[in-house]
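Section: Multi-chain targets

For targets with more than one molecule, the full set of components is provided together so that the structure can be written out for the assembly as a whole rather than chain by chain. Components appear in the order listed by the source. The example entry contains two components.
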Amino acid sequence: EVQLVESGGGLVQPGGSLRLSCAASGFNFNNSWMHWVRQAPGKGLVWVSRINIEGTSTSYADSVKGRFTISRDNAKNTLYLQMNSLRAEDTAVYYCARNRHKENYFDYWGQGTLVTVSS
Amino acid sequence: QSALTQPRSVSGSPGQSVTISCTGTSSNVGGYNYVSWYQQHPGKVPKLIIYDVNKRPSGVPDRFSGSKSGNTASLTISGLQAEDEADYYCCSYAGSYTFGVFGTGTQVTVL
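Its structure, encoded as tokens over all components, is:
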């Protein structure tokens, strides 16, 4: 059974930091590009970041560039998102999702973890 | 990249067909045949229902179909059913750096 399980969300003050994790199982993590997608309360889906299979290439949405860092540990089948300098507008459910190598869609999604940035 | 444009809501009676448009630019929808659609019920995780413009994953009913013309992609739900009431998001590949741009989302209501 395919599973993507996010953790690490919670309440943080503006300017603070948080590290999200996404543990993968049931599929070939080492053949998967991985992504973070977020959804603010009552709003739509927004792509945040992606990392290639080897972890050597990353990219970010303009809204998080320079503040967020995506990484992965293929030995642990785990994806990470380090979030620094958090702002109120970063409040959202954060989903990890994967696209299989050479495909261009998200076929597996985690259940999401809520990040709330508030004083 | 700006979000792709979708109508805020569409509605139809059971058995009818509804079509959701998704308008982008030549840098995303018009430039690649990599449009995907996701269904999201309230409080649930998005589910892939269409990929590569018009392909359906295993298990997705053939009532769902996709197409594209120029910079606009479309999702059609034929034979609308009560369980189709959900939010729908398009997403287009937009190059190796940005990867994916989502649409603004459309709420489908079954009357």
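Chain A touches chain B through 19 residues (CB under 8 Å).
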